[in-house]
């Protein structure tokens, strides 16, 4: 989020963004349908297992809904004032000053500009400068990498709204239709010994490497999806996470500064809940700040340390469980080819634990406060 001019609260953009999330999700629901069916194919045996997702009501609703992140970002951004967002703005340093007995965050940008704010919320990703200022340990490598992309079929792909996943020795791949024309696909594997720097900025090389090496024995349908990828969407990145004990016992807020999303709890993508957990953070944070705003008739800087501490208390252990559950889910599904790992994956994880673990994504963020006129 952008910060407002000197000594101005960032509350308006935060609350507006939170308020619009329900609207953005309504639009996404009109464009997508829940994917309640997951089919997992064992690449070694050819066996196909159907694994149901946990649902939230008797009608079977509540499963995962595929949504292009670009669509959500655009829906939110379009409702904000034109100058609310600054692009390509990097933070150099952060400090705090005291103004009328309250702490003010001072952010020094790479372009030389200085921004002051009554509340600073670091949503600056895995390598967050704000998290570093708070003293949080840097994320660590998981030993795995992920290739991700979006395939486009202008005339329609004709596939059912189902999640297809393929598992083998130290490898996992899958795809899920997002719309009638777009399909999200992924492939996870051990991080190459020589690294992936030579592929990071070359989408054609990424596509070629997947087709010719990593996915050459996968079903033709999967290969066709990879071949239809929009090159600008292709990424190949190492999977990192913040060790859960650092979230459990680390400093997630200080004075009027805190973090949210990947800046707070970066996790591997094996629950498909990283972006969703950031939205959870936003709603909970908006609820705490909004309640204070209403009770005090405005944003009171001296109240912010307590407000942010309450937000952190509510989100800390949620982040710990999401990181742990996601890491375990990825490890057991891509753990190797030994008999023990296969038994744990096929006979225990998919049969008993998968649905329970997937249920962790269901979370009640609470209701946002409202002002009665």
TrEMBL record:
UniProt-recorded Gene Ontology molecular function terms: FAD binding; monooxygenase activity
Residues annotated as domain FAD-binding: 72-290
Signal peptide: none
Key words, A-Z: Monooxygenase, Oxidoreductase
Superkingdom field: Eukaryota
One of the Pfam families matching this protein, by short name: FAD_binding_3
Alphabetical list of Gene3D superfamilies matching this protein: FAD/NAD(P)-binding domain (3.50.50.60)
InterPro entries named among the record's database cross-references: FAD-bd, FAD/NAD-bd_sf, MOase
Family, per entry: Belongs to the 3-hydroxybenzoate 6-hydroxylase family.
The protein, known as: FAD-binding domain-containing protein
The organism of origin for this protein: Ficus carica (Common fig)
Biological classification of the source: Eukaryota, Viridiplantae, Streptophyta, Embryophyta, Tracheophyta
């Amino acid at each position: 989020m952008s910060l407002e001019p000197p000594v101005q609260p960032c509350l308006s953009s935060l609350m507006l963004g939170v308020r619009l999330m329900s609207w953005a999700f309504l639009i996404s629901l009109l464009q997508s349908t829940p994917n309640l069916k997951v089919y997992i194919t064992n690449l070694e045996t050819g066996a196909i297992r159907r694994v149901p997702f946990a649902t939230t009501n008797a009608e079977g609703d509540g499963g995962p809904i595929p949504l292009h992140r670009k669509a959500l970002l655009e829906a939110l951004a379009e409702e904000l004032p034109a100058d609310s967002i600054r692009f390509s703005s990097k933070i150099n340093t952060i400090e705090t000053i005291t103004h009328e007995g309250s702490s003010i965050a001072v952010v020094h940008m790479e372009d030389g500009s200085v921004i002051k704010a009554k509340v600073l919320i670091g949503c600056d990703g895995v390598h967050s400068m704000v998290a570093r200022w708070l003293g949080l340990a840097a994320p660590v490598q998981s030993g795995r990498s992920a290739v991700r992309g979006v395939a486009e079929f202008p005339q329609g792909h004709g596939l059912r709204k189902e999640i297809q996943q393929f598992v083998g020795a130290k490898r996992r791949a899958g795809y899920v239709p997002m719309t009638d024309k777009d399909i999200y696909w992924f492939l996870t594997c051990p991080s190459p010994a020589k690294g992936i720097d030579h592929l990071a900025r070359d989408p054609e090389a990424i596509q070629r490497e997947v087709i010719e090496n990593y996915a050459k024995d996968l079903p033709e349908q999967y290969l066709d999806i990879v071949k239809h990828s929009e090159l600008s969407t292709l990424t190949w990145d190492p999977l990192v996470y913040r060790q859960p004990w650092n979230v459990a016992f680390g400093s997630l807020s200080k004075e009027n500064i805190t973090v949210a999303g990947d800046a707070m709890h970066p996790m591997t993508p094996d629950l498909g809940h990283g972006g969703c957990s950031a939205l959870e953070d936003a709603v909970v944070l908006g609820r705490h700040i909004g309640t204070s705003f209403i009770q005090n008739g405005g944003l009171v800087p001296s109240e912010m340390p307590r407000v942010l501490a309450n937000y952190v208390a509510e989100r800390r252990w949620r982040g710990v469980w999401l990181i742990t559950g996601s890491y375990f889910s990825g490890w057991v599904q891509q753990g190797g080819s030994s008999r023990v790992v296969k038994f744990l994956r096929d006979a225990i994880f998919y049969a008993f634990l998968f649905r329970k673990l997937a249920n962790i994504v269901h979370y009640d963020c609470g209701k946002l406060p409202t002002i009665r006129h």
